Amino acid sequence: MGGSQAVNRVQISISSNDDVSITRSSTRSTGCGSMMKFKRGPRCYALVGMLAFCMLVLYLGDFSYFFAILNKKVHVERHVLRWEDHQHKVDHRRPRIMIGTRGRMGNHMFQYATLNGLARRYNMTPIMLGTLDILEVFKLPTLQGDFSLLRDPITYTEQKASAYNPGVDKIDPTRDVYLNGYYQSWKYHDHMRAELLDKHFVLLDPIKEAADRYIASLLEKRNKQGATLIAIHVRRGDFVRQRVKGYTAAPIPYYYRAMDYFRKKYGNVMFIICTNDLVWAETNLEDEGGDVHYSHETDGALDLAIMMACNHMIITSGSYSWWAGYLVRGEVIYYMGYPQPNTKIGNLTNREDYYPPYWEGRW
């Protein structure tokens, strides 16, 4: 071996008069080292106590407000409606229904809507998981609990993620039900769309107020009061990188054709573009007429609220974009090129089941 390795040693000693010495030395050093010395007493105990208190505050405290500021997110309090707090209001003779959760916010919105749509159809009590991210966006009135609340349930598993599952037409209305899958079709819940919009997907106050302020400020700066608002959601990112799976990103002409349609129909318009690729949007969707605005928000909930506040919608691809369109009460134009046929995603999608018939598809 080329030489011995150094060994660091730390020695702590307490003398009879309560002096505490901490000495650090090395086997390679000859008499060299470092020593820290202090005396135990009230000051020492106060310092240790203050340190322990600070650690406890860090452990137990709610710093979501400060994290929200750092991440440019609107600070909200999660909407809580626990089963154990409200079960005395429930008719326990009714069957219960729950759904497993997959994906992210847009997927969770599909699953929530399907849960309530089928609960309404079969007169069941819907129960949602209390851990979902959409509880930090909406005042959802559905009770929250876990799967242990289901009593010997029957499981219904979908065959395709974005197609209607005919198996739900044969649900036994006398048994508890567990839904397994994405369940992404308007057919599961469109019969109660007005209720979903008016009583379920109601934004939490801080998010709603932030979106209202955002739009009011925008219209004032652009001198566009009274303009018809059209939201445009531009989804790129993974939809560009993973084309082999069937993801597609709408081409530039699709946006301009859809924008021209709204310009001709409503005249005084204001387009608000929300996207996960701001550089691409600002480069390719130019503000030639002074009626295009690019949202620089990084908070997906706030961007969704801004789009919901618009009159009409141009969507592209993905469940988040889909729900932005569904929650807008006006016209919706969607990109017909998603998903690519004969791909993994394409084979899991039935267009007639995925896109509502009152939306307009364009290329």
TrEMBL record:
Enzyme class: transferase
Keywords: Glycoprotein, Glycosyltransferase, Golgi apparatus, Membrane, Signal-anchor, Transferase, Transmembrane, Transmembrane helix
Main location: Golgi
GO cellular component, one term: Golgi cisterna membrane
GO biological process: carbohydrate metabolic process
Topological relation to the membrane, as annotated: Single-pass type II membrane protein
Transmembrane regions listed in the UniProt entry: 44-68
Taxonomy, superkingdom: Eukaryota
GO MF annotations in UniProt: galactoside 2-alpha-L-fucosyltransferase activity
Family named by the database record: Belongs to the glycosyltransferase 11 family.
The protein's name: L-Fucosyltransferase
Protein's organism: Elysia marginata
